[in-house]
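Subject — a protein and its fold

Tokens — whole-number codes for backbone shape
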Amino acid sequence: MMTRPLQRLDTAFNWLLRAFILGVLVLAAFAIAQPGNAALPSIQKVFNQHSAIMLLIDPASGGLIDANPAAARFYGYSQDQLRKMKIQQINTLTPQEVAAERQRAAEQNRNFFIFRHRLASGEVRTVEVSSVPFIFDDKKLLFSIVNDVSELRETQEALWHYQSQLEDMVDRQTEALRKGDEQLITLLLAGSLALLLAVLVLIRLLIKRKQAEAALDLERKRLDEIIRGTNVGTWEWRIDTGEIVLNDRWAEVLGYKLNELQPLNIDTRLELIHPEDRARSDAMISELFRSEIDHYECEVRLLHKAGHWVWVMERGNVVEWSDSRKPLRMSGTHQDISLRKQRDELIKYQARYDALTGLLNRSAFLERCRLMLDEARLKEEHVALMFVDLNKFKPVNDTLGHEAGDKVLRDVAIRIRSAVREQDSVARFGGDEFVVLLSGLHDRGPINRIAHDVLEQISAPYQVDEETRVRVGASIGVAMFPDDGDSIEALLRNSDFAMYAAKRGEKGIVVYAAEGAEYACEV
């Protein structure tokens, strides 16, 4: 009597088990056969045409510099509205909660943050935000990619809910075994259905996870494209072992192939860095390790394969710490700034030197004069200021043109420079006027000799082209420190006065006399 019900029970149980296993296999095959993601777009179309939500953020103010159409569709604002907003108007987390999330991301060694963003409709969505810093027009910005993970979070919560229900149901089934075969079959069927539902949820979760991994892979590819687009090298330093990882661009900046720098370790960089820059770089890295600064940024010179020095901007930060707050891993970028340094040097040069002749300009000469006068006061020496004005130069410009006149001025500058001593300073004051500062004098002897040499050099003929030669003369006025003035302004005024006196004379050189005579001597 008892055998037949038990056989029926066994048959039903086997049927349910086979159905369950068949369902799992079908669903697993369905999950594996999910189509892959579409081909990744090029970097040029990513921002304006891609469906990914992208924001360009000013980290200093939180202002949204730009947002792509996908961001406008997601948040429910127009692109113009978003450009006038700040990220704080979207992110519902408080500054303290944002800081806590950043801390959790650092502790979990993940490169994205979980935030809650409010849409224009008032709905709040859970998002993953991945950001990468870059420099645009010398301004540091954040390129952020936003991924809506609200459904993933809801799925995770649903899975936990069903797992909890399943555990309760299993407990009830165990109790039901003692109450009879009919109740056991009912509970077994309900449990199987619940388990099947849980498996469906799990498969859905796995699909979501694959999609999230694909999105992460897409993000990595975008970051790689951004790095290639900005033409920067990347590096990673394992501090405890000295091992470093470089990309191809890092080596290309210095004229190498990456395999030519093998084996790669921290000594590779130390052997290439300029000795004058290493101490400054090491000091900044030590400050970073002690948390005295929040990031590393240093301009250094690295030795090119061809033998010259390349100016490089190194930026980086510690990305992994030990439990005892010792730095374990540091990563960053490496960008060639040689052209910028050359432009900076050119600007400095143009600020101090005359563009036509290469001599000191007025402001640089006056600065040099004040330093020389201060030194002369300390050493109780004399300084002489020669004011040189060209004669018969205007006809050269008027008859032969400014190009010929410019050539004569360049030649005059070369000749004056060759006639004075190495320690003396020569400048063009404008037009056809030049000044010479003679320092370290103890008497007037060198002044007369140098003045004659300058006058003789200037008076020699000038070859302006293959067929034309011209002559110009000069009038020279001289004032001495401290006899003829104890300031650069007084020396300029008195030497200029002496120069005009020289124009009225015959030989062209006048030394100014402090005693009040029109000129003391014509030499």
Q: What stands out?
A: Confidence is low (pLDDT under 50) at residues 1-44, 515-523. The chain has four domains: 3-33+153-228, 43-148, 233-342, 354-522. The two ends are 148 Å apart (CA to CA).
